[in-house]
Design brief:
Elements lengths: L20 E4 L4 E3 H6 L14 E3 L6 H4 L5 H54 L8 H6 L6 H14 L10
Antiparallel strand pairs: 1-2, 1-3
Keywords: Coiled coil, Ligase, Meiosis, Metal-binding, Zinc, Zinc-finger
Pfam families: zf-RING_5 (PF14634)
GO cellular component, one term: synaptonemal complex
Length: 167
């Protein structure tokens, strides 16, 4: 552990190998002398109820990192972050390759189906379609051509000119 720890009460540093330091759960560090002077289960700095953990080389690495120089932490974590980043990049590339292959297969299938549809349409004879207006006109007594005849026939019946018998 680095010398970044010191007692928050007497400001002693852990240079003496026989002097133990403890960390409270509220984030304060005390030497064993100051810890014994204070109240049990209470922080001497912030007066809150607390638990203590003796600082040693066997404690959790996350707690050890609280007392390490920042440049050492940066080197350590930048290496880990680089490894994680490389892993994720490879993973994403594999996933992207998979999706590209899947798209290529789907496009090929679409192309084949489109070609088959075109071949079927070329083989099929053209359908004769007759417009509905022309086919129904011959059967409908009220069609346009029959109306013309009715108009002319009614004209001769109701003409405005006098007939020969009237003159």
């Amino acid at each position: 552990m680095a010398v970044f720890a010191f007692c928050n009460s007497c400001l002693a540093e852990p240079r003496n190998p026989t002097l133990q330091f403890s960390l409270t759960n509220c984030g304060h560090v005390f030497c064993e002398v100051c810890l014994q002077k204070g109240k049990e289960n209470e922080c001497s700095v912030c007066r809150t109820a607390c638990r203590t953990l003796v600082l040693s080389k066997e404690i959790n690495p996350d707690i050890q990192s609280l007392f390490m120089p920042v440049d050492g932490l940066c080197k350590k974590y930048s290496k880990e972050i680089s490894q994680i980043s490389e892993f994720q990049e490879k993973y994403h590339k594999r996933l992207l390759t998979h999706h590209k292959q899947k798209i290529a297969k789907l496009e090929e299938s679409l192309k084949k189906v489109t070609q088959q549809m075109q071949q079927i349409q070329c083989m099929k004879p053209p359908e004769k379609t007759t417009p509905l207006l022309f086919s129904s006109a011959s059967r409908n007594p009220f069609s346009f051509s029959s109306r013309k005849q009715n108009v002319y026939s009614s004209f001769s019946l109701h003409s405005s000119r006098p007939s020969t018998s009237e003159t």
